[in-house]
Amino acid sequence: MSRKHVFRKDNLLQLGAIILTLVVFGAAVFAVSRMLNSRNETDTLYTRPDNRPKITYNGKDYVLRNNLESILVMGIDETEDLSYSDKFQNYTQADVIMLFVIDRDNNTYRCLQLNRDSMVPVNRAESSLNEELVTMQLALAHSFGTTDQARCENTVEAVSGMLFDLPIDHYVSLRMESIPILNDSVGGVTVTIPAGMEPADPAFTEGATVTLHGDQAERFVRSRMSLDDDSNTFRMERQRQFITKWRELAVARAEQNSDFVMDLNMQLSDYLVTDMFANSLSDFVSQLTTF
């Protein structure tokens, strides 16, 4: 399936809304429909084809419901400048992987946070005509591909295979180096420091309440190898805390400042890769209500 990276300056509001609702590596979806024009009565909801996938479990068949839309959100650890590279294998990894499933009938959503260390079949074939599946960490799926789009698509395929070939409709990725921008956009996220974080930052003493600033936010969200507990599970717990606190502050900022979404979007645009066209973004966002 052909997917494109689309960013249009004349649709900053829609794209900014998606960034606020999805891209912040799992920030819970919040209401932005008030920023958009109301849907026309002739507009149609997303509907899957009749040949929807079926999963058989304990002798019972389960068919994917209509009017569900899935979006894979990735936080990318990019240590190489791949702007002018056509190298197929590289060192970019998906550090944060979250799948949002939107129920457009009931205006609800579910978010599944996937462990980057999950061992799954990953396609590492250079030609799209072939398939070479090798079991490796899910994060490494993003390491194969000559373009940002191809790397995202490879991760989409790996996640889909991991989830019984569940179709994934769209992807959004944001480079992890943008974490300080996200953090500082809301004046700094205040977190409670869990045990064992001192090696990452002297201010990270157990039980301390710290308002993160600049690169400190990235250390809180990403630190791993320098810690006694270097598990990704521990890091995922910190990510969830940061996400929850950031969301609360972002909602308040958006309500107080009508330019907040657009300003943040402009700051993040260089870090963003997505296959969602502007009209799809608008259509999707306009379905959201307060959850």
Detailed description of the structure:
With 291 residues, this protein is α+β, with helices and mostly antiparallel strands. Helices cover 29% and strands 21% of the residues. The chain is built from seven helices and eleven strands. The chain has helices spanning 12-23, 148-162, 179-185, 215-222, 232-256, 260-268, 278-285; strands at 54-57, 60-63, 68-77, 93-103, 108-114, 119-123, 133-137, 170-175, 190-192, 209-211, 272-274. The two termini are 32 Å apart. Mean pLDDT is 76; it is low at 1-47 and 281-291.
| Overall pLDDT | 76
Helix/strand structural class: alpha+beta
Shape: globular
What is the share of helical residues?
A: 25-40%
Q: How far is the N terminus from the C terminus?
A: 32 Å
Low-pLDDT regions: 1-47, 281-291
- Rg, rounded, reads 19 Å
Number of helices: 7
| Biggest pleated sheet | 5 strands, mixed
User: Strand arrangement, largest sheet?
Assistant: 5-4-3-8-11
